[in-house]
Design a protein that fits this description.
heterodimer; A: about 400 residues; mainly alpha; 2 domains; two-stranded antiparallel sheet; about 50% helix; about 5% strand; B: about 425 residues; alpha/beta; Rossmann fold; six-stranded mixed sheet; globular; binds iron/sulfur cluster
């Protein structure tokens, strides 16, 4: 064996000499990977054409990154994965009818304004994808919140056309309603928009009664439709299964923390369980815990603890909580969008606080009917208080 | 309160993969001293001792070579030979340190073998005389000045944990010298009148734990397994997990009347008190993928890293020499650097040496804050250092940093966090 020689001089530098191998570009690539199941589910529910929405949002973001490269101080390796992840996150929130211009502009503005102008990589306060979303919202209010959201009918998944749409009269659920000849898609409000009707004053909608039971009986598809994603909503919002898969990938690979989604979903569930719903006179009294409540007032009064309601053998309260969790953009927001590390708190406890605040704001925004997409505004609002959360959740130095 | 926190681990830290091949598997090997030793007169970063020998003088093993003016910091000769000159050497901790060069008498001089005396036969002197004798024989115990002053400690924690994942000197010492370590610990327990004396080791080493518990049966030493999460071996963290006390900021374990020492130091005490040998030869772990037989070796201070590694064999061309381990050791440029009594581990690496990645913008992932064993926010401190707002660092207690290196290790943006924390620390300490 040839003698091994000592080199003249060995490498000298500061410790540590090993590294965990974690890298920031890897973190954002993971966010992109986590978007894949959502994209696939979206392609099936809304037609493969929606992939173009993702691509155009990502292109817009990459373009923004390219334009700003001279202003972004460092982080060259994570620049493009970050922009791409932001573009994909933005696309998830968009309705399937959005066209390609809006995602392109949204992605571009999200990076240029949200990331570079408002602080730069690592320092921005607000989630860039949602800054892009909010700006698009201001530019073209109707585009992001249509009254009706189309999705493909049974038997037309992936390749059907959202143009051959039937506005949802008589729609009872994906597996329950057979589309008439020539119809390839249904168009309905999002389940959550239907549900929150029960929280606000009566709305004339063909004279329909909007108490909880009637909402479920007459207006909502089965809950399982929202789990599989065959319901109206943003292209990355409807399929709870795909969102969960993506979210668990992120958590498992330590790109995000479990505290945020758990706290946010838990808060929404608790609030949905106790927040009063409007009950029409005559239908009230379903809650065993509150007999007679609502009976006195007419025509409508509040029913606290709706979770306890059982009407005609149907646990409407539980169903309401479940629809709150999966019927809108909440899951996507909590698992895939909000966990961007830069705009969330540093510690796990901070993420808990952030999640609780996010859930509460999103729920209150929802039931007060302020604006569709309240969960995204809630994320932006919570982003604003992240420095405060960081300060109050700083770890104690033992012995100090 | 003591009972509730005992047995738990500290917040933060990381489980690091143990490097293969495991250097603890081999018995401690004794090797011959090289033909020339240059024994440094400073062991770490303290001022050097003054020589007490002259050129041409003949010295025997255990003879005094130098001492500090106060009579502390004594340096003894590990071998017999002739003082050929007063040289200057580089140690890992200090450059250009005065040293005594000894031409070793006879080829292949190895560690002098002690008499057959065992601890049971020894009469352990009272505290004052014991500390006196240890000082005279060059055993510098951690916090010995404090021990001199109080002469009594509440708890003694003897660590068998090797702080760095590459090192196994303490573990191997416990394995090979269980009787000696336990009996020395028991004697010190009595001498110092301690309330509790702990012998701490990795709870995953079940066989060694039960063997030690067997040895320690009927004596006051409690054998205690702790989860070996890096950097559990550091003194302040041992105090936290084992004694359940918190060392105040900017203080040593002495502040809570705990004396933290380790298995190798127990052997130094044993050799000094029972076998009347000066503290010279040390157990040093040689690890790393560039050596062909990693393990623990008995090394004379004053040998070069190169002469030690020659015994362990080079399998590959070294690209990095680290005195200490991969997390917070000191990288040295050549194998000519001389080992001191403080050196416990030499890591020689070839593969896996990589240039540090380009630092990127902080991701605010919070990993550094999570992993810091003392609850610092390295990211925030680096930011203060970079913005020159060091005066704000005071309230964040950067002085408690243990230099463990974990924040740099986990940071996905490869930021120089340790350096930032150190700058804050320096600012706070000059204040
Ligand atoms: S700040 Fe100091 S103690 Fe904390 S992880 Fe970094 S090196 Fe370790
Ligand atoms: S580990 Fe690095 S990237 Fe993460 S918060 Fe700390 S400094 Fe920032």
């Amino acid at each position: 064996m040839a003698a091994v020689r000592w080199p003249r001089s060995c490498e000298v530098r500061d410790p540590p000499y090993i590294h965990s191998g974690a890298s920031s570009e890897q973190t954002y690539w993971l966010f992109c990977v986590a978007a894949v199941p959502v994209m696939a589910a979206g392609a099936w529910v809304f037609g493969y054409g929606i992939v173009a929405v993702y691509v155009s949002a990502a292109l817009g973001a990459l373009l923004g990154e390219r334009v700003c490269r001279y202003f972004v101080s460092h982080g060259s390796r994570s620049r493009f994965p970050h922009a791409m992840a932001m573009g994909l996150m933005l696309a998830m929130t968009l309705p399937p009818t959005v066209g390609l211009g809006i995602p392109l502009v949204g992605g571009f503005l999200g990076i240029v304004i949200g990331k570079v102008v408002l602080g730069g990589m690592g320092n921005y306060l607000w989630h860039p994808a949602l800054v892009g979303w909010a700006l698009v919202h201001l530019i073209s209010p109707g585009a992001l919140a249509p009254a009706r959201w189309p999705f493909l009918a049974a038997g037309h998944g992936l390749t059907g056309s959202l143009e051959a749409v039937m506005v949802g009269a008589g729609y009872r659920g994906f597996g329950l309603t057979v589309p008439p000849p020539g119809v390839e898609a249904w168009s309905t409000p999002r389940p959550i928009d239907r549900l929150i009707g029960a929280y606000s004053a009566p709305v004339a909608d063909g004279g329909a009664d909007r108490s909880l039971l009637s909402v479920f009986r007459d207006h909502l598809p089965p809950w399982s439709d929202t789990v599989w994603g065959v319901a109206g909503g943003g292209i990355g919002e409807t399929c709870a299964v795909a969102v969960l898969v993506g979210g668990l990938v992120l958590i498992f690979c330590r790109a995000s923390r479990w505290q945020l989604p758990v706290a946010a979903l838990g808060t929404v569930a608790v609030l949905a369980a106790v927040w009063p719903v409007r009950v029409d006179a005559g239908l009230a009294g379903g809650a065993p815990g509150a007999p007679g409540l609502g009976q006195a007032a007419s025509p409508a009064s509040a029913l606290w603890f709706p979770i306890l309601s059982v009407r005609e053998g149907f646990p409407v309260g539980v169903a309401a909580v479940l629809f709150h969790l999966t019927g809108g953009g909440l899951l996507t927001a909590c698992f895939l969008i909000a966990p961007d590390p830069v705009s969330t708190p540093l510690s796990g406890r901070g993420h808990l606080l952030f999640g609780v605040g996010l859930g509460a704001l999103a729920f209150v925004g929802r039931v007060s009917g302020l604006t569709p997409g309240s969960v995204y505004w809630a994320i932006l609002a919570m982003n604003t208080v992240v420095p405060v959360i960081d300060r109050i959740t700083r770890r104690r130095v033992p012995g100090a | 309160m003591f009972m509730f926190t005992r047995g738990r681990s500290f917040d933060g830290g990381r489980f690091l993969a143990t490097p293969a091949p495991d250097s603890a598997a081999q018995p401690i090997r004794s090797i011959d001293a090289p033909a020339t030793l240059r024994v440094p007169l400073a062991q770490a970063d303290e001022p050097a001792a003054e020589p007490r020998v002259v050129t041409g003088q003949t010295v025997a093993a255990n003879d005094l070579l130098g001492e500090s003016p106060g009579g502390a910091g004594r340096v003894h000769s590990p071998v017999s030979g002739t003082v050929s000159r007063l040289a200057r050497v580089d140690t890992p901790y200090q450059q250009d340190v005065p040293a005594i060069e000894i031409a070793v008498a006879g080829a292949g001089a190895s560690e002098p073998s002690p008499g057959e005396r065992t601890a049971d036969a020894a009469d352990w002197p009272a505290v004052g005389e014991l500390l006196d004798r240890l000082g005279r024989l060059g055993v510098d115990l951690a916090e010995s000045a404090w021990l001199w002053k109080v002469r009594r400690v509440d708890e003694i924690i003897i660590s068998g944990l090797d702080c760095d994942p590459a090192q196994s000197a303490h573990l191997r010492t416990l394995t090979s010298y269980a009787d000696e370590v336990v009996s020395t610990a028991a004697a010190l327990h009595d001498v110092f009148g301690a309330r509790r004396t702990w012998l701490v080791l990795d709870s995953a080493r079940r066989r060694l734990l039960s063997a030690l518990a067997e040895v320690a049966r009927g004596c006051p030493v409690r054998v205690h397994g702790v989860v070996s999460k890096y950097p559990q071996g550091m003194a302040n963290l041992l105090v936290r997990t084992v004694a359940g006390a918190e060392v105040p900021c900017e203080a040593t374990p002495a502040a809570v009347a705990v004396w933290v020492t380790d298995a190798c130091a127990m052997m130094d005490v044993f050799r000094a008190v029972v076998q009347e040998q000066a503290c010279t030869w040390q157990t040093v772990t040689v690890a790393g993928d560039a050596v062909s037989s990693p393990g623990n070796y008995r090394v004379a201070p004053g040998s070069t890293i190169g002469s030690l590694v020659r015994h362990a064999g080079l399998a590959k061309t070294p690209r990095q020499i680290i005195v200490g381990g991969v997390m917070n050791g000191i990288a040295v440029p050549t194998g000519d650097v001389v080992l001191t009594k403080r050196t416990r581990c030499v890591t020689v690496r070839c593969d896996g040496v990589r240039a540090p990645s380009e630092a990127m913008a902080c991701l605010r992932c919070g990993e550094c804050q999570d992993v810091c064993p003392v609850g610092l926010d390295p990211r925030g401190l680096l930011e203060l250092a970079e913005r020159n707002r060091l005066e704000l660092a005071v309230r964040r207690h950067p002085q408690v940093c243990l230099d463990c290196g974990l924040c740099d290790y986990v940071c996905p943006s490869s930021l120089p966090l340790m350096r930032g924390v150190r700058r804050c620390r320096e600012h706070v300490s000059v204040r």
